Amino acid sequence: MKKVIVTTTINPVTPAIEKFQDLPDWELIVVGDKKTPADYPLRRGLYLPPAAQEAYDRELSDAIGWNCVQRRNFGLLYAHDMKADIVAVVDDDNIPYDFWGQNLFVGGDVEVNLYSTGLPAFDPLGATNETRLWQRGYPLQLLARRDYSVKKKATVRCDIQADLWNGDPDVDAVCRMIYAPQCRFDDSCFPIASDAPIPFGSQNTFIGGGLLKDYFLFPHIGRMDDIWAGYYAQARGYRVVCAKPSVRQERNVHDPAADMKMEYLGYEKNLELLLALRKSPENIFDFLPETSARACALYREHF
Questions:
Q1: Most exposed of 86, 224, 299, 300 (fewest Cβ within 10 Å)?
Q2: Domain range for residue 18?
Q3: How far apart, in whole angstroms, are the C-alpha atoms of residue 206 and residue 35?
């Protein structure tokens, strides 16, 4: 089985990248940006400098733009070319635990705590011991109506596995400003699934290689890039399972107020988008700027 890790960075080699290089069953792809050190050194793995990305697809490169995390779409394309069976998309400030990547459900069936909700989305964080928190991308309009009373054990197929994260997680910016969380999730809460779409990011997520065509990190929509990618994939019929933390996030420097501004599109449109996706996954393109929709079309041409 071919397993590939994809990350982006503008930093020198981080402790997380050091550890990911040492996982013998995984191949590592690090996607660079204009701000990444020009002499970025990897002991093991593939580094994609900006020139290599432009040589691969200059139109797509121009459509995505520079100095943005969505450059990791090139890593997804390289993973596809490598015929990866499972692709792990990670952030470079998520330090993997020793068991990272060993408890995988992707492509198989798994027994979960299955939550039913009549709401357009399900927030998995409220089903854990960290009930005060909510996931980035969950519609704020639904927070007061979260209900975890309808739960059962069930076996579901897992297409995407979103592992959680201890430490200082990449949750909603308003949530971070209010609580400044340092998380330690209770492993016994997991795995979690729902009959409604689940917001999940691209910081510690495992994806079946066969669905990469339907997983694209949309540029030019701020910090909804990975959230809308996940909502779109679920509208296409893929099932998400949230699993216990397998990393500790030692968060890169962020300004929560700046993050909030980058999440505003989601505060305004997430609920409307979820209702539109119930009718057709292609309705997402009504919510995207033209540059983002074009980048998605160019990406899909590689499949």
A1: 300
A2: 3-300
A3: 27
